[in-house]
Design a protein that fits this description.
There is one protein chain. Strands 1-2-3-4 form a 4-stranded antiparallel sheet, with helices on one face. By secondary structure, the protein is an alpha+beta fold. It is elongated and about 50 Å long. The protein has one helix at residues 34-47; strands at 5-7, 10-15, 18-23, 26-31.
Length: 56
C-alpha cells in the first residue's frame, strides 16, 4: 500500500494502487509513484501565475 504526503497546498493520497494529487479540493491527476507525484506538483506550481499588482 502506498502512503500519501502533503506538500504545501497539495495532498497526495492513496487511490487503489496509485496516488491521487489534490489541490484546493480538486483532483488534479492520478500517478503511479511518489516521484511522479513530486514532479507533477513541481511542474504545476511553476505553471501557476503569481499575478502581481501594478505599482503606482
Amino acid at each position: 500500500m502506498k502512503e500519501g504526503f502533503i506538500k504545501g497546498d497539495y495532498a497526495t493520497v492513496p487511490f487503489g494502487k496509485k496516488l491521487m494529487i489534490i489541490h484546493n479540493g480538486q483532483q488534479l491527476d492520478v500517478v503511479n509513484t511518489p516521484l511522479q507525484a513530486q514532479k507533477y506538483i513541481k511542474q504545476h506550481c511553476a505553471s501557476q501565475s503569481s499575478g502581481t499588482l501594478p505599482i503606482d
